[in-house]
Design a protein that fits this description.
Length: about 250
């Protein structure tokens, strides 16, 4: 079993879905966890309480991570509470779906800011600590939409594709200091982002998945935890798909 004893992890957008599952798995492996949420206070407090009740160390920090001051507070909380930052999971995501010709500039900017700008800010501030201590793991949660595109999601696809390029560039910059940067690209996962789709759209989605079903957050989290571990020490700049085989088609 992977162990992360003594490691301090920061994860964004973690009150629900993939982020929540990742917090639980990181904590179960021994990591101390600081996670961010924006509006889901009740879910965040419940999650932090659950980890603490199970004997782990967990702190929830509210904030808008598209704003530098809130990112400084998030990273600062990890350093103040636990003395270091070893693992960063850029998980926060947002969709504002619509056909390109009808998409507002506000919806474009919202998707780019939450999915890409926030990762830039968090990585920039967390990497300073990792480079000084000569150990770090940066994992960006992207999407198969960023690999193949998705109709009605030009903004989301562009942001996630940008995050793939960001992952590869950062991996080259930090490798000499024993810091890795990788990405996990989930496919169709049973989260709030998918549940808003109509039944007919869901049926069409499932028809594209060789495994014939949606994935669960608990099936994505282990990929993130693996890339955060010592076992993944010679993997960097890689995009790991967790998609039931859809990108093999």
């Amino acid at each position: 079993m992977i162990r992360l004893d003594g490691r301090v992890a920061v994860i964004t957008g973690a009150a629900r879905g993939i982020g929540r599952a990742t917090v639980l798995q990181l904590a179960s492996c021994g990591a101390k966890v600081v996670f961010n949420y924006h509006t889901s206070r009740a879910e965040a407090e419940e999650l932090a309480a659950r980890v603490t009740a199970d004997g782990g160390a967990c702190v929830a920090v509210q904030g808008d991570i598209t704003q530098r001051e809130d990112v400084e507070r998030l990273i600062g909380t990890a350093v103040d509470q636990f003395g270091r930052v070893d693992i960063l999971v850029n998980n926060a995501g947002l969709i504002r779906d619509g056909l390109l010709i009808r998409m507002s500039e506000e919806d474009w900017d919202a998707a780019i800011n939450t999915n890409l700008r926030a990762a830039f800010l968090c990585t920039k501030l967390a990497a300073r600590h990792m480079l000084r201590q000569r150990w770090g793991r940066i994992i960006n949660v992207v999407s198969i939409a960023g690999l193949a595109g998705n109709a009605g999601q030009a903004n989301y696809s562009a942001a996630k594709a940008g995050l793939v390029g960001f992952t590869k560039a950062v991996a080259r910059e930090v490798a000499s200091r024993n810091v890795t940067c990788n990405a996990v690209a989930p496919g169709y996962i049973d989260t709030d982002m998918i549940r808003h789709l109509g039944d007919s759209i869901k049926e069409g989605v499932l028809a594209q998945v060789p495994m014939g079903r949606m994935g669960t957050p608990e099936e994505v989290a282990p990929a993130i935890v693996f890339l955060a571990s010592e076992e993944a020490s010679y993997i960097t700049g890689h995009v790991l798909t967790v998609d039931g085989g859809i990108t093999t088609l």
